[in-house]
Automatic annotation (TrEMBL), chain A:
Gene3D superfamilies: ABC transporter type 1, transmembrane domain, P-loop containing nucleotide triphosphate hydrolases. Belongs to the ABC transporter superfamily. Siderophore-Fe(3+) uptake transporter (SIUT) (TC 3.A.1.21) family. It comes from the Bacteria. GO terms for molecular function: ABC-type transporter activity; ATP binding; ATP hydrolysis activity; ATPase-coupled lipid transmembrane transporter activity. This is ABC transporter. The keyword Hydrolase does not apply. Keywords: ATP-binding, Cell inner membrane, Cell membrane, Membrane, Nucleotide-binding, Transmembrane, Transmembrane helix, Transport. Residues 337-572 form the ABC transporter domain. InterPro entries: AAA+_ATPase (IPR003593), ABC1_TM_dom (IPR011527), ABC1_TM_sf (IPR036640), ABC_transporter-like_ATP-bd (IPR003439), ABC_transporter-like_CS (IPR017871), P-loop_NTPase (IPR027417), Type_1_exporter (IPR039421). The chain crosses the membrane at residues 25-46, 58-80, 134-159. It is found in: Cell inner membrane. It comes from Bifidobacterium moukalabense DSM 27321.
Automatic annotation (TrEMBL), chain B:
It is a multi-pass membrane protein. Keywords: ATP-binding, Cell inner membrane, Cell membrane, Membrane, Nucleotide-binding, Transmembrane, Transmembrane helix, Transport. The chain crosses the membrane at residues 40-61, 81-108, 183-205. Residues 42-322 form the ABC transmembrane type-1 domain. Its main location: membrane. InterPro entries: AAA+_ATPase, ABC1_TM_dom, ABC1_TM_sf, ABC_transporter-like_ATP-bd, P-loop_NTPase, Type_1_exporter. This is Iron ABC transporter ATP-binding protein. Belongs to the ABC transporter superfamily. Siderophore-Fe(3+) uptake transporter (SIUT) (TC 3.A.1.21) family. The lineage of its organism: Bacteria, Bacillati, Actinomycetota, Actinomycetes, Bifidobacteriales.
Length: 581, 605
C-alpha cells in the first residue's frame, strides 16, 4: 500500500532540478545536528554554572563560548536552509506550472473528461500551494527534527549510557504509537467519508428536486435527507471518538519520553551519578525536547496531507501522450475517412464498438444514427484520435491516424460538437481561431452565414463584446453558431458534426442549415444525425445497434425499402416530428 | 492602470467593512455553542497556567539538591521525589487538560455543523421555488464543503490553541519575573530584535497580499480556460498560442510570488536566528552567570529561566496565524448566513377552496432582480382546455407557467384558480390542484416505485404500474433486473427519455386537475422523444393544461395559443386564427424554410 517515499516523489516532482533541493536537505541535516548539539551542550554548561570548575576540561565561559559558536553557525546555516528550501519550493512552482502546461498540450483529447478542467484549476489554486508549502515549511523542519533527535541521542549515549538509553528506548514506542494513532484517525475518516458524501448528495437532491418534492407533499420532512443528516452527525461523533482515542494514545506516548527522562534523571542525581544542575538541565532539556518530537508528529500529518496533492501532480506528469511519428506521410486521399474492422472500448471489460467498418468518400455526407450509447460520438472521437483503437484501423485522408502527427490530423478536421468552448475575447477572435490567417472579410462572411451577426447585435458592445470565459453570456444555441462559423472559416476537408442540440430553437436551425449546405459543398461531412432531412439527404447512412456494432448501412432509399432497424427508427422519428398534443 | 488602483483601494475599504460584518456573523454562528467554547477556553487557560509548574518544581528540586551538594550531606530524597511527582503530575495534567479542551471544542463544532446543515435543509424547504436554478447544487456543495470546513478550522481549534498560545507565554514570563526581574529581562532580551525585523518585513505587505490573490485566481482561470478549451485549441492546431498565454500567466504569478514571499522568507530567516535555542541558552546562561556571581540569583533559578525562555518563541508563531484565520472564518460565516436567509411565501391563515379549475392571470408583472420577465400580462384559461405558450427564448413563457404553480408571487396583479387568488389557497391544496412536468424529471435516489408514488405514498403497486403503463414505461421497468424496486442512481443507466416517462407516470398517479408542461421533451435524446410524446398525450387528457412548446405544429390542437415576446402577450387565439399573426407565421415559415434549405443543400452537393 505504501508507495514510493515522499522524498523520492518530491525529487521526481522537481524533474531533474534536484540540486537546490538536495542542498536544502543537507543544510537541514546540519541544522539538526547543531540543534542536537545545543541541547546536549546545555548540560555541561549547567554543571559548570552550578559549581563544577570544569567539565571535560572546559570551564563555564568556554562552554558558553561553544554555545555562542553554535548560535552563530545555526543562525547562518538556518538562514541558508530557509532560503534554499524556499528556492526549491519556487523551483517546484515554476517546474510544475510549466510542466503541467506542456503536458496538457501534449495529451490526447481523450484524457480530458468532464471534471478535468475543474480538477486542474483546483490544482493551480490549492494543490500547487500545498506541495510548495511542503517543500518550504514541512520537509526541511522534519529532516532537521530527525537529525537533532539522532544527534541528541548519540551524544547522550556517549555521555551517560543510562540517559542515552532512556532517550532511545521510547522512540520506537513513540513511532509505533504514531503509526497506530494515524491508523485510528484514518479509520475514523473512512467512517465519515461515505456518510458525509451521502448527506451532501441528499442535500443537493433535496434542492434540485424541491419542485417535485414540494408538489408531492414530501418535502416536510424529506425522510431520506433527515436520515442522512442524522447518520452523518452520528458518524462524525463516532469518528471524533476515534480521533480522541488516537490523540490520547499519541499524547500518552509523547509524554513517555520526558516523564521517563525526568524519573531516571532524578534517580541518577539522588544516587550522585549526576551533579544536581546536570540533572535539572537534563529534565529541562527533555521537557523542551518533547516539543520537538510533537512538532514532528504534526509535520508528518501535514506532509501526509500534501502527499495527495503530490500524487495527483505526479499522476498527471506520468501520463504519456499517444505515440506519433516524427513526420507524417503525405495523405493519399484528402477528405476520405475509413473505419477498418475497428474495435474499441473505454475500459477493457466494456467494448463500445465491435468490428465496425465503413468508408466515406471525399466530399460525401455520412449520417450516423442509432440509440444513445451505441457509440456514435465515440466514432467521431476516434476519427479525431481522442483515443487509439483496440483493434483495426481508422484512416483519415487515406492514412492511418497513428502514422500522422496529431497536428496534421487536426488540420484535416473541423469539429462541431455539443460542448462548445469560447475563449475570453471577442466573437471575431473566437471565429478566427478556425483559421488565424483568414482575412477580415472571410471572417465576417462566416459570421454572417452562421448567424453570429445577430448575436453581436444583441450584445451590449456589439462585435467588441468580450464573450467571456467559456462563453457564459451566450446561450447554448448561440455558442454552437460560433462553433459552426469556425468550421465554415476553417474549410477543412472533413467536418464532424453533432446535431444533438441543434434542434432546440427554430432560429438557430435556419443558420445551421445554411452552413451545412456550405460545408457539404466543400468537405466530407460526417454527422451524428437527428433531423430527418439530414438523414434523408446523406450519401450513406450508418445505423448503429445498441451493442456498438454496425447494423445496417446504405442510402435512405435502400434502407427504407427493407424491414429493419432503420425503418423503425425512421418511422418513429417521423411520428415524433408530426406529433401534436 | 488608474482603474486598477481605484479598484484595489475600494476593495480594501470593502474588506474592512466585510471583516467587521464577518466577525459579527461569526459570533452569531457560535452563539448556540458559546458555553462549550468558553469551557474549552477555560480549560486551555488552566493548561497554559499549569505550564509554569514543571519549571517551578525544577527550581525547588535544584534548591534541595544543590544545598545538600554544597553542604556535602545526603539530599532529602522524599522532598526530591515529591517535587518530581509534582513536576510530572503538572506536566501530564497540563497535556490532559489541553486534550480535553480540544475534544470539547471538536464536539461543539460537530453540533454546530449539524445545526448548519439542518438549517440549510430548512431554508431550502421554505424558499420560493423560483429561487432554485442551475447553480443551486454548486452553491450548496461549495457552502458545505468550503464554508463549513473553514468554520471547523476556527471553532474546533482556535478557542483552545489561541488561548493556550496567549496564556502560556504570559504565565511563563510572569513566573520568571517572580524569580528575578533581571532574569526576566534576560529571557526576552532577543525578542525585540525578532519582532523588529518581523515588523520591518511586513511593511507594505497587505497590498502585496491582495495582489497575490488576484494573481492566483488569474493563473487558475487561465488554467481552466486552457484545460477546458484545449479540445477546441487542439482541433484547430493552435495549442501553441494558448500555451503561450498560459505560460505568461504562470510566469507572472511566479515573479509576483517571489516578489511577495522572497523578502519575507529572508527577513523571517534572519529574525528566527534571534530565537534559536542555541542563542537563547548562550545569552541566558552567560547573563545568568553574571547575576549568580553578583549574588542576585541562584544557579537553579538561572537554569529554570533559561529553559523557560526556550519555550517562549514557540508559542509566538501560533498567534500570528490567528488574525488571518478569523478573517477567513468570518467571511465563511457571512456566506452561510446569507445562504440561509430566505423569505418564504406567505401562507394564508384563512384558506379558501377554489371553485373549479379555471386559471385567471390578471395584470401580472414579475421581475428577476432588475430584469422584467413579465410585464402586465393577462390571460384566461378555461377549465379542461389546453393553452400553448410559444415565443422566443427569454420571452417569459416559463416564468408565466411556473407562477401558476406559485413558484413565486407576482410583484403586481393576481393569479387565481377557480376564482381564488393563489395566495389564499393552502399550499397543500394548491399542490393537489396544480402539477407540473418540467425539463428536468427531478427523480430522487429511491426505488422507481417510490419515485412514481412520491405524491401518493399509499398507492398500491398495481396503481403504480397502471400509471407507468399509461406513461408507456411499464415494460421497460419490468425488464430491469429489480423491476420497480430498482433504485435510481447514476449507475442504473436510465436514458433521459425513460426518466422523463417515470416523471410523467408520477404526474399521472398524482392526478392533478391542472397541469403545467415546460418543454418536457427538450433535453432528451431524439430517439426517445416519440415515446415521451405518447406518454404526454395520455397525461393531458381531461385536464386544464398549460404547455410550453418550441414548435407551433406540436400544439396545433390547443384550444388557445398564446404568442409571447419580451414579457408580454402579443397574440392569442387558435392556431387557425393565428395563422396570419406575424409571430406564428414567422415561426411556421422558419420551420418550412428549414426543410427547403436542407434539401437545397443536398442538391447543391
Amino acid at each position: 500500500m505504501r508507495r514510493t517515499s515522499t522524498l523520492q516523489c518530491l525529487r521526481e516532482a522537481l524533474a531533474g532540478h534536484v540540486g537546490g533541493f538536495d542542498k536544502a536537505m543537507l543544510l537541514s541535516v546540519i541544522s539538526g545536528v547543531i540543534t542536537g548539539l545545543t541541547f546536549a551542550a546545555i548540560i555541561p554548561t549547567a554543571q559548570t554554572l552550578g559549581g563544577a570548575s570544569t567539565v571535560m576540561g572546559l570551564g563555564f565561559w568556554q562552554w558558553v563560548g561553544i554555545l555562542a559558536v553554535l548560535a552563530v553557525s545555526s543562525g547562518v546555516i538556518d538562514y541558508f536552509r530557509s532560503v534554499t528550501s524556499y528556492n526549491s519550493a519556487l523551483d517546484f512552482l515554476a517546474i510544475a506550472l510549466h510542466g503541467i502546461g506542456d503536458k496538457i498540450a501534449s495529451l490526447p483529447l481523450g484524457w480530458f473528461g468532464k471534471g478535468t478542467a475543474g480538477r486542474l484549476s483546483r490544482f493551480a489554486t490549492h494543490d500547487l500551494m500545498s506541495i510548495g508549502q511542503s517543500f518550504a515549511h514541512l520537509i526541511s523542519p522534519m529532516i532537521t527534527g530527525a537529525a537533532s533527535t539522532i544527534t541528541l541521542c548519540a551524544t547522550m549515549l556517549l555521555w551517560d549510557w543510562r540517559i542515552g538509553l532512556t532517550l532511545i528506548v521510547p522512540l520506537p514506542l513513540l513511532w509505533g504509537a504514531g503509526k497506530l494513532s494515524s491508523m485510528m484517525l484514518h479509520r475514523g475518516d473512512d467512517v465519515m467519508l461515505a456518510l458525509d458524501f451521502e448527506a451532501s448528495s441528499r442535500l443537493v437532491e433535496f434542492a434540485t428536486c424541491q419542485g417535485a418534492l414540494r408538489s408531492c407533499g414530501a418535502s416536510h420532512p424529506y425522510q431520506p435527507l433527515t436520515d442522512a443528516l442524522d447518520a452523518r452527525t452520528a458518524g462524525q461523533r463516532r469518528s471524533l471518538r476515534w480521533g480522541v482515542a488516537a490523540n490520547l494514545l499519541n499524547g500518552m506516548a509523547s509524554q513517555l519520553l520526558p516523564v521517563s527522562m525526568i524519573m531516571v534523571c532524578a534517580a541518577l542525581t539522588l544516587q550522585g551519578a549526576l551533579s544536581p544542575l546536570a540533572g535539572i538541565a537534563c529534565m529541562g532539556v527533555s521537557l523542551r525536547f518533547s516539543n520537538t518530537v510533537n512538532d514532528m508528529f504534526a509535520m508528518l500529518l501535514g506532509i501526509e496531507e500534501s502527499r495527495k496533492s503530490l500524487d495527483y501532480y505526479l499522476s498527471v506528469m506520468r501520463e504519456r501522450p499517444l505515440p506519433e511519428p516524427a513526420d507524417s506521410k503525405q495523405v493519399t486521399e484528402p477528405g476520405a475517412v475509413e473505419f477498418d474492422r475497428v474495435r474499441f472500448g473505454y475500459t477493457a471489460s466494456a467494448p463500445v464498438l465491435h468490428d465496425v467498418s465503413w468508408t466515406a468518400r471525399p466530399d460525401s455526407m455520412i449520417a450516423i444514427v442509432g440509440p444513445s450509447g451505441s457509440g456514435k460520438t465515440t466514432m467521431a472521437k476516434l476519427i479525431a484520435r481522442f483515443y487509439d483503437v483496440d483493434a483495426g484501423t481508422v484512416r483519415v485522408g487515406g492514412l492511418d491516424v497513428r502514422d500522422q502527427r496529431a497536428s496534421d490530423v487536426a488540420a484535416q478536421l473541423s469539429m462541431v460538437f455539443q460542448d462548445v468552448y469560447l475563449f475570453r475575447g471577442t466573437l471575431i477572435d473566437n471565429i478566427r481561431l478556425g483559421r488565424p490567417e483568414a482575412s477580415d472579410d472571410e471572417v465576417m462572411r462566416a459570421a454572417e452565414l452562421a448567424g453570429v451577426s445577430e448575436i453581436a447585435q444583441r450584445l451590449p458592445d456589439g462585435w467588441r463584446t468580450n464573450v467571456g470565459e467559456g462563453g457564459r453570456s451566450l446561450s447554448g444555441g448561440e455558442r454552437q453558431r460560433v462553433s459552426i462559423a469556425r468550421a465554415v472559416l476553417k474549410q477543412a476537408p472533413i467536418v464532424l458534426f453533432d446535431e444533438a442540440t441543434s434542434a432546440l430553437d427554430v432560429e438557430n436551425e435556419a443558420h445551421i442549415n445554411a452552413c451545412m449546405a456550405q460545408l457539404r459543398a466543400t468537405s466530407t461531412v460526417i454527422v451524428i444525425a437527428h433531423k430527418l432531412e439530414t438523414i434523408r439527404n446523406a450519401d450513406t447512412i450508418i445505423v448503429m445497434g445498441r451493442d456498438g456494432g454496425m447494423v445496417q448501412h446504405g442510402t435512405h432509399d435502400r434502407l427504407i425499402a427493407e424491414p429493419g432497424m432503420y425503418r423503425e427508427f425512421y418511422e418513429a422519428r417521423c411520428r415524433a416530428e408530426n406529433w401534436s398534443l | 492602470m488608474a482603474d486598477n488602483v481605484a479598484d484595489e483601494s475600494t476593495a480594501q475599504t470593502g474588506d474592512k467593512a466585510k471583516a467587521v460584518e464577518g466577525k459579527a456573523a461569526l459570533n452569531r454562528a457560535m452563539r448556540p455553542i458559546r458555553g462549550r467554547l468558553n469551557c474549552g477556553r477555560a480549560l486551555a487557560a488552566i493548561s497554559g497556567l499549569l505550564s509554569v509548574a514543571p519549571y517551578a518544581a525544577l527550581v525547588s528540586i535544584g534548591d534541595v539538591l544543590l544545598r545538600a551538594w554544597q553542604q556535602h550531606t545526603q539530599p532529602d530524597t522524599d522532598a526530591v521525589w515529591r517535587y518530581v511527582f509534582i513536576l510530572v503530575g503538572a506536566y501530564m495534567l497540563r497535556s490532559i487538560l489541553y486534550f480535553v479542551a480540544l475534544s470539547v471544542t471538536h464536539f461543539a463544532d460537530c453540533t454546530l455543523g449539524a445545526g448548519i446543515r439542518r438549517a440549510m435543509a430548512d431554508s431550502l424547504g421554505k424558499a420560493p421555488l423560483s429561487t432554485f436554478n442551475a447553480s443551486t447544487s454548486g452553491m450548496i456543495r461549495k457552502s458545505i464543503h468550503d464554508d463549513v470546513e473553514t468554520l471547523h478550522a476556527l471553532i474546533a481549534h482556535w478557542p483552545v490553541e489561541g488561548t493556550a498560545a496567549t496564556v502560556t507565554p504570559i504565565a511563563l514570563f510572569a513566573y520568571i519575573v517572580t524569580l528575578d526581574w533581571r532574569l526576566a529581562l534576560l529571557s526576552i532580551a532577543t525578542l525585540p530584535i525578532y519582532f523588529g525585523i518581523q515588523m520591518l518585513s511586513m511593511v507594505g505587505m497587505s497590498e502585496k497580499t491582495a495582489l497575490m490573490d488576484t494573481k492566483i485566481s488569474n493563473v487558475s482561470s487561465t488554467m481552466v480556460e486552457f484545460a477546458s478549451g484545449i479540445a477546441v485549441v487542439k482541433a484547430f492546431g493552435r495549442s501553441g498560442h494558448s500555451l503561450q498565454q498560459y505560460e505568461r500567466a504562470a510566469d507572472g504569478f511566479i515573479r509576483q510570488y517571489n516578489d511577495w514571499c522572497g523578502p519575507l522568507v529572508r527577513w523571517c530567516a534572519v529574525a528566527e536566528a534571534f530565537t534559536a535555542p542555541s542563542l537563547l541558552t548562550a545569552v541566558n546562561l552567560a547573563g545568568g552567570m553574571l547575576l549568580v556571581q553578583a549574588g542576585y540569583v541562584t544557579a537553579p533559578q538561572v537554569l529554570a529561566a533559561t529553559l523557560t525562555a526556550m519555550m517562549l518563541p514557540s508559542t509566538i508563531t501560533v498567534i500570528g496565524n490567528m488574525q488571518w484565520s478569523y478573517q477567513l472564518a468570518g467571511s465563511a460565516a457571512l456566506r452561510i448566513e446569507r445562504n440561509l436567509r430566505v423569505t418564504p411565501l406567505a401562507e394564508t391563515t384563512r384558506p379558501k377552496h377554489p371553485n373549479g379549475y379555471s386559471v385567471a392571470i390578471d395584470h401580472v408583472t414579475y421581475s428577476y432582480g432588475p430584469t422584467t420577465a413579465l410585464d402586465d400580462v393577462s390571460l384566461n384559461v378555461a377549465e379542461g382546455t389546453m393553452t400553448a405558450l410559444i415565443g422566443p427564448s427569454g420571452s417569459g413563457k416559463s416564468t408565466l407557467a411556473t407562477l401558476i404553480a406559485r413558484f413565486d408571487d407576482p410583484a403586481e396583479g393576481t393569479i387565481s384558480i377557480g376564482g381564488v387568488d393563489l395566495r389564499d389557497i393552502a399550499s397543500e391544496e394548491l399542490y393537489r390542484t396544480v402539477g407540473f412536468v418540467l425539463q428536468d424529471p427531478q427523480l430522487v435516489r429511491a426505488s422507481i416505485r417510490d419515485n412514481i408514488a412520491l405524491g401518493r405514498p399509499d398507492a398500491t403497486l398495481e396503481q403504480v404500474r397502471a400509471a407507468a403503463r399509461a406513461a408507456f414505461i411499464d415494460d421497460e421497468i419490468m425488464a430491469l433486473e429489480h423491476g420497480y424496486d430498482t433504485v435510481i442512481n447514476g449507475r442504473v443507466g436510465l436514458s433521459g427519455g425513460q426518466e422523463q416517462r417515470i416523471a410523467i407516470a408520477r404526474a399521472l398517479l398524482k392526478d392533478t386537475p391542472i397541469l403545467i408542461l415546460d418543454e418536457a421533451t427538450a433535453s432528451v435524446d431524439p430517439e426517445s422523444e416519440a415515446q415521451i410524446q405518447r406518454a404526454l398525450n395520455a397525461l393531458v387528457k381531461g385536464r386544464t393544461v398549460i404547455v410550453i412548446a418550441h414548435k407551433p405544429s406540436a400544439v396545433v390542437g390547443a384550444d388557445q395559443m398564446v404568442v409571447m415576446d419580451r414579457g408580454g402577450i402579443v397574440a392569442c387565439g387558435t392556431h387557425e386564427q393565428l395563422a396570419d399573426e406575424a409571430h406564428v407565421r414567422a415561426l411556421d415559415a422558419v420551420a418550412q424554410q428549414n426543410r427547403i434549405a436542407a434539401q437545397e443543400g443536398a442538391y447543391h452537393a
